[in-house]
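Input (structure):
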């Protein structure tokens, strides 16, 4: 059997590690908000696409949607009942930005209205009253008989925070107004006495306050967390405040207008993590209003930054590739340890990460280039399947596809009911990253879209790694293959896999597709073909190399494809555009870009943009994320820090006319010292994960600065994150209290 003419590179470099080396009102008594209301009956059902009715009694569950019909999904199950709110006092209040106060609804019940940053009250919100359960989820879109998901839990402005259920086939979840304090203009989340940090490396002196009696002078510490202009989901992990070491005593002051006291902390460390109780109170009461953080050194000046907390939560779990930088260049797959290339993850709100999958745990048989069965030797370019218990990834050379379980009770398990035909498709070599759509993930019709450089079905392993990759679909429920070669059965075109036509695309190569949630459209990187066996062009080993590359879209059309068109705003010949990702409502596409002619793979000049799609406001205009720019006082700048591989949260949150989209991405800005690999002798940057956001209100887009995920490991390259409704084991906290 022929092997490639080029010495192979292990997948540590092909899809994982090198990509990283390389987001007058009234008030009430909030003390009465803790009693859980009883579940009511199911609301009335409605036809496909419909929402279920609300429950019949206080705190009741929402009703189920109607049964599914051809083309429409059934409505989702009702949401969890809300918590009963009662009022024991009605008093006039003033408009304090970020505060929420009661108001009268037309049905005689109480609603809530928030004081805006302009100092005026928004309209009274009566949509989610305290005695109503959440409505059932909308039906699944497009695919026949797609089941709807669970409805949203009641998250009334008067309730204690409640979990938000997903909508069936939907893309947004309801936001939540801040909970009003007993006195909405004078919350007491911050304690009156200062906090002396018990974790200080040296004891805080008893006279700490007296060392800050005068005015600050000189330059202040470089505050790197939170970044000035960051936006937090209200259910996010508590923030860490971090600054460049001053070598002495530091005073931290946190201020919010509606808090009675400022939060004051003294420490001799270079960071402080906010207490959980303080954060939970702040995140419940102060939304969409500036919260300032001032860090002052006893021996110098002070620096202030501001952040906000959104009236929207983030949902799901983030699973990322954690690679050992000291293993870069190890080309002997027989010596690759399963700790050098693995998946880690956490569920939103957790304060640690957990090993999610090691390649030694994978039960699906992989194949080497001689078709011998083997255990995978790498996990690269993973993606979330619509089944919350499984992820897909690419194994080592010769780059075949794998799917494995990640839930606590099925770690490494083969995809449930994977057919021999589906396995033959996954066994196809020379593939790239995969993508899925819930609209085409039903029993008997579980589809996967990926790219394939395989050139000959009768000689599937006889392909040079510089051949351009086609856009293809795999049927994971496909029938038994009828075609075989000397090494064994192989997938047959039109049965287990098929090529998606890209009429009008001038380039032969494709890479990194993203499939819209409604299943209608695929956006992918269209890339120039190879110039010679040693000049790969835009595509190499299933990933992007160097050459003209733009984003194109093509209809899925039952796997038949159709006319391919450049994506307006993401097909500029002055740039190479890649790593596309559809937003949860298919209204935007995120992507990376570098100047034309530059290497796309692990390029420090990579920056993240988005472009509105379809009929969205601003369609065709690329928008640069503010999150690209690191904190100025660090001396770093972008381009130069490889901002890459952005992924959306599985749902956007909407409140009071504004929709919040959450994004995770990887960047080389953390300032962790690079690690030199003994295999290639090079020093490799340590990529880390960051959160950022985009909000949309009345057609206006706002982007925000970044939030460092302080609970991630700092000894591994953390990159290629995926964010989805993925069930993974709980992550142990890294900070014990």
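Output (sequence):
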């Amino acid at each position: 059997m022929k092997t490639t003419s080029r010495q192979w590179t292990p997948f540590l470099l092909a899809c994982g590690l090198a990509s990283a080396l390389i987001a007058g009102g009234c008030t009430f008594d909030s003390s009465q908000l803790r009693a859980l209301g009883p579940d009511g009956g199911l609301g009335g059902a409605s036809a496909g696409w419909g929402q279920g009715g609300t429950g019949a009694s206080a705190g009741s569950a929402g009703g189920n949607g109607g049964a599914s019909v051809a083309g429409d999904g059934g409505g989702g199950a009702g949401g969890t009942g809300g918590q009963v709110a009662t009022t024991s006092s009605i008093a006039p209040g003033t408009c304090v930005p970020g505060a929420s106060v009661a108001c009268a609804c037309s049905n005689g019940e109480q609603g809530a209205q928030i004081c805006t940053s302009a100092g005026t009250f928004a309209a009274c919100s009566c949509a989610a009253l305290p005695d109503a359960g959440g409505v059932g989820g909308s039906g699944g879109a497009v695919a026949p008989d797609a089941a709807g998901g669970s409805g949203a839990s009641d998250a009334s402005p008067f309730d204690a925070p409640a979990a938000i259920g997903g909508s069936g086939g939907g893309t947004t979840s309801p936001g939540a107004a801040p909970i009003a304090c007993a006195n909405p203009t004078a919350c007491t989340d911050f304690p009156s006495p200062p906090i002396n940090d018990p974790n200080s490396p040296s004891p805080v002196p008893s006279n700490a306050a007296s060392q800050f009696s005068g005015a600050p002078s000189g330059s202040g510490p470089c505050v790197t967390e939170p970044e000035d202009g960051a936006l937090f989901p209200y259910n996010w992990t508590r923030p860490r405040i971090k600054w460049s070491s001053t070598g002495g005593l530091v005073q931290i002051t946190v201020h919010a207008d509606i808090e009675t006291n400022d939060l004051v902390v003294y420490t001799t460390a270079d960071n402080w993590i906010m207490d959980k109780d303080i954060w939970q109170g702040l995140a419940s009461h102060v939304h969409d209003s500036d919260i300032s953080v001032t860090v002052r050194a006893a021996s110098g000046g002070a620096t202030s930054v501001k952040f906000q907390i959104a009236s929207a939560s983030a949902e799901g779990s983030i699973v990322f590739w954690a690679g050992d930088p000291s293993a870069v260049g190890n080309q002997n797959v027989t010596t690759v340890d399963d700790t050098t290339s693995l998946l880690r993850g956490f569920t939103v709100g957790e304060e640690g990460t957990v090993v999610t999958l090691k390649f030694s745990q994978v039960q699906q048989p992989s194949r080497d280039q001689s078709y011998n069965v083997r255990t995978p030797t790498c996990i690269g370019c993973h993606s979330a399947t619509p089944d919350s218990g499984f992820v897909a990834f690419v194994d080592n050379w010769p780059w075949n596809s794998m799917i494995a379980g990640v839930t606590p009770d099925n770690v490494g398990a083969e995809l449930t009911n994977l057919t021999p035909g589906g396995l033959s498709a996954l066994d196809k070599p020379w593939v790239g990253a995969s993508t899925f759509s819930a609209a085409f993930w039903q029993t008997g019709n579980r589809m996967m879209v990926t790219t394939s450089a395989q050139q000959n079905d009768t000689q599937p392993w006889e392909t040079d790694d510089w051949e351009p990759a086609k856009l293809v679909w795999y049927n994971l429920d496909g029938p038994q293959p009828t075609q075989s070669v000397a090494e064994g059965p192989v997938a047959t075109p039109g049965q287990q896999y098929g090529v998606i036509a890209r009429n009008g695309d001038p380039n032969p190569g494709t890479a990194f597709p993203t499939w819209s949630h409604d299943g209608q459209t695929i956006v992918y990187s269209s890339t120039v073909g190879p110039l010679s066996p040693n000049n790969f062009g835009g595509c190499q080993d299933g990933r992007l190399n160097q050459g003209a590359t733009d984003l194109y879209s093509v209809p899925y059309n039952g796997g038949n494809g159709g006319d391919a068109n450049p994506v307006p705003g993401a097909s500029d010949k002055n740039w190479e555009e890649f790593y596309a990702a559809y937003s949860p409502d298919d209204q935007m596409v995120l992507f990376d870009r570098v100047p034309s002619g530059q290497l796309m793979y692990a390029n420090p000049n990579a920056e993240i943009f988005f472009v509105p799609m379809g009929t969205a406001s601003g369609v065709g205009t690329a928008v640069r994320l503010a999150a690209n720019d690191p904190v100025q006082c660090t001396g770093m700048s972008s381009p130069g820090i490889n901002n890459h591989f952005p992924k959306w949260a599985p749902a956007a949150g909407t409140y009071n006319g504004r929709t919040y989209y959450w994004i995770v991405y990887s960047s080389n800005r953390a300032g962790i010292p690079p690690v030199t690999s003994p295999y290639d002798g090079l020093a490799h940057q340590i990529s880390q994960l960051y959160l950022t956001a985009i909000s949309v209100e009345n057609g206006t887009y706002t982007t925000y600065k970044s939030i460092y995920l302080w609970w991630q490991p700092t000894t591994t390259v953390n990159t290629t994150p995926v964010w989805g409704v993925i069930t993974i084991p709980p992550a142990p906290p890294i900070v014990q209290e």
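Notes: The radius of gyration is 26 Å. The mean pLDDT is 80.
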